[in-house]
Amino acid sequence: MPVMTTPIMTESDLREAVARELPGVRADLERLVRIPGIAFDGFDHAHVERSAEAVAELLRGCGLDVEVARAGGQPAVIGRKAAPPGAPTVMLYAHHDVQPIGDRMLWESDPFELVERDGRLYGRGAADDKAGIMAHVAALRAYGDRLPVGVVVFVEGEEEYGSDSLERLLAEHREKLTADVIVIADSTNWDVGVPALTTSLRGIVNCFVEVRTLEHAVHSGMFGGAVPDALTTLVRLLATLHDDAGNVAVAELVGREAARVDYPEDRFRAEAGLAEGVRLFGTGRITDRLWTKPALAVLGIDAPATGEAPNALVPAAKAKISVRLAPGDEPKRAYAALRAHLEQHAPWGAQVEVTFEHDGAPCVIDASGPMFDAARSAFRTAWDGTDAVEIGVGGSIPFIATFQEMFPQAAILVTGVEDPHARAHGPNESLHLGEFARVCLAEALLLARVAEVGRG
Ligand code: BES
Ligand code: MN
Predict the structure, then answer these.
(1) Residues 388, 380 contacting (CB under 8 angstroms)
(2) Could you give the residue numbers annotated as active site?
(3) Domain 203-255+294-360 of CATH type 3.30.70.360
(4) Does the structural domain 11-201+363-455 have CATH classification 3.40.605.10?
(5) Average pLDDT for residues 325-340, to the nearest whole number?
(6) How much distance in Å is there from the Cα of 34 to the middle of ligand 2?
(7) How far apart are alpha carbons 440 and 221 in whole angstroms?
(8) Do 454 and 149 touch, CB atoms closer than 8 A?
(9) Could you tell me the distance, in angstroms and rounded to a whole number, from the CA of residue 449 to the centre of ligand 1?
(10) Ligand 1 pocket: which of 184, 397, 425 to mutate (most atoms within 8 A of CB)
(11) Which range has the worst mean pLDDT, 47-51, 138-142, 259-263?
(12) How far apart, in whole angstroms, are the C-alpha atoms of residue 154 and residue 25?
């Protein structure tokens, strides 16, 4: 007896379908970018709620069963569509929250309006990671009701703020989230025109350190010379965190030289926007420094602003420190080491108080097996014959390690919409339109190839 099956979409069907969907996808990206959903404390979380609702609506429009889920933190969106008989289920991950915009004056256009300039779309979240959400939507729309796999779309709402409630949320929804393959659309490509498959990410530990040397501010002339001010003391403490070569000086952090990809220094300098004459710091290959060794940066300091600073000794000052952890390191252990370092290096007996903000584990992905081959093949096709480079990234996606622990069998394909010019987290974040079209096509092709592997 003949079995009724929906005809499989061919590569050219998919090319056509994705091209057809792109204008609508862009219009919906524009709607998402208008919602300033920032999960950080002190921001209006009503926007995060609206953002989750907008994502839920998009997924309902793709014919998915959708719920907005939370576990004490910001809302995530889960959308599901059952697999055709015998086909694998693919989880599609992205996040809908964004980073704060920083100094508005540094933006060339409204951060919450998607504006096109020179083939790029500018706006906060235009790349990280609202375009990741839209890449999933593009692939789903391209298939319509001919989707060859089951899908679970998981769109997190507090990725940029440490994913604090994620573990609980995943545990509570474990059954629904089970998948054979997961596609994470939250990383970067190697260059414009060159795709990447991300196989390692660094972890992260963020904390605050407050230094106190006085019970109250005093006249800097009357007491200066004998009393250490808190800001000088803090700066001196922060200076102990690197050695003279610029390597992180906190003992016991994991780091190794392992990367095989060459990142030419002049290209790196240009992409980073390094100021004239500034030397790189740290040792080893650039990719080692970025991907497989720890990094430490001071992200902010609370101290009197220079325009208003009186001639008084500062009694207390606080810094925010961020450590990126190499794959193989462990956030709780690293935080203990950092804390001990800060407490033991306080100059002049200053009081030091360290408080934890949040952390995320690093991860390594073994990119072998048929699902990874499927991804490489989809990328090659979408980028007209250019092979994906296997890269590490220095950034963090805490979700991945958590997911690996819960579903050790699942193949984790870390893809993304960014390129080295995307300026995620900075002013004038942007998405390359041409690359975005390739990302959407690659994802549609990937689902077809995953279905084939699943059947085989
Ligand atoms: N999309 C980034 C992760 C990323 C960065 C991937 C660079 C590829 C290249 C993600 O949204 C992010 O920024 N995560 C935070 C996590 C943190 C708040 C726990 C990060 O890395 O700062
Ligand atoms: Mn992101």
Answers:
(1) yes
(2) 97, 159
(3) yes
(4) no
(5) 98
(6) 17
(7) 64
(8) yes
(9) 28
(10) 397
(11) 259-263
(12) 18
